[in-house]
Design goal:
Its EC number is 2.7.1.4. The protein is α/β, with parallel strands linked by helices. It has nine helices and 13 strands.
């Protein structure tokens, strides 16, 4: 089983309406999208987080259930749902977050499950590891479960929500010591380490603790740093509608590949051959590419991959 921990929010994406601009609500949030994507690919998945009782919260719940994701680890809150305003730009989508005192932040240590199913993997990421009180709660869970089960991490950096880059980077390096699989985008690395080569950073991160580090590079594809080599794949060519949720879809594809191939532990991750890692990258890239062909974070179902 995969347990995905983190934020759930509503992405307000722009549409043209009667000659003007309007916004359409789409369920989202990086970890939330990973859970949706994994569930649709057939991986047994549960979402761990706090969701509002408001109308948007009900939409988030129903979307999880419809995608085959378990709600067993959900907490409900009277606080409102976080909103993210999505603005297209030449370099990709820009997000403005309305998240002060919102539901997905309100996860406390006492809300964490005392035990998790044997063999379950945990995925963490994005601003849920930044905004308190939830950030400290999730980091507590990560530290508690590290080396007891497979831990994956996608920082999915949101600069708008990070007041101090150096302080954030120090915390991130601590998470790398706990994670077995790390996926990061080239755009994230450009903000974290301006002017540095992404491959070099990935190799440095590999030395911090992860068994596998993957860097997604948008239309250029992706690379992975293993114990022995650097592997690369090209991105499939598709007609892009938008790229919202593409990185999350890639992450769900990578985790689902590991589940399907029985590589559900650190030892199994370390034993993957170069051919297997390349296959993982190609599968995840295909999942991400399909997501880019439609509006919002709308990852594919397993049947669509054939």
């Amino acid at each position: 089983m995969l347990i995905v921990a983190g934020e759930a929010l509503i992405d307000m994406t722009p549409i043209t309406h009667n000659g003007g601009m309007a916004y359409m609500p789409h369920p989202g949030g990086s970890p939330y999208n990973v859970a949706i994507g994994a569930g649709r690919l057939g991986t047994p998945t549960a979402f761990l987080g706090c969701i509002s009782r408001d109308a948007f919260g009900q939409l988030l719940r129903s979307h999880l259930a419809a995608s085959g994701v378990s709600l067993d680890y959900l907490k409900e809150s009277e606080h409102l749902t976080t909103l993210a305003l999505v603005t297209p730009s030449e370099s990709g989508e820009f997000f403005s977050f309305y998240c002060e005192n919102t539901a997905d932040r309100m996860l406390y240590p006492e809300d964490l499950p005392a035990t998790l199913p044997p063999g379950a993997a945990l995925h963490f990421g994005s601003y849920s590891l930044v905004l308190e009180p939830g950030a400290s709660s999730l980091e507590l869970l990560m530290r508690r479960e590290a080396r007891r089960r497979l831990i994956s991490l996608d920082p999915n950096v949101r600069p708008f929500l990070i007041p101090n880059r150096e302080a954030y980077l120090e915390r991130l390096l601590g998470w790398l010591e706990l994670a077995d699989l790390v996926k990061v985008s080239q755009a994230d690395l450009a903000w974290l380490y301006p002017g540095k080569n992404p491959e070099t950073i990935a190799q440095e991160w590999k030395q911090q603790g992860p068994a596998l580090v993957i860097v997604t590079q948008g239309g250029q594809g992706a690379l992975a740093v293993t114990g022995q080599s650097v592997l690369r794949v090209q991105a499939p060519r598709v007609s892009v509608v938008d790229t919202v949720g593409a990185g999350d879809a890639f992450m769900s594809g990578a985790l689902s590949w590991l589940w399907e191939h029985g590589a559900w532990s650190r030892a199994a991750l370390e034993s993957l051959s170069s051919a297997q890692v390349t296959d993982l990258l190609n599968f995840a890239a295909k999942v991400a590419a399909i997501t880019c062909t439609r509006a919002g974070a709308n990852p594919p179902w397993r049947a669509e991959l054939s």
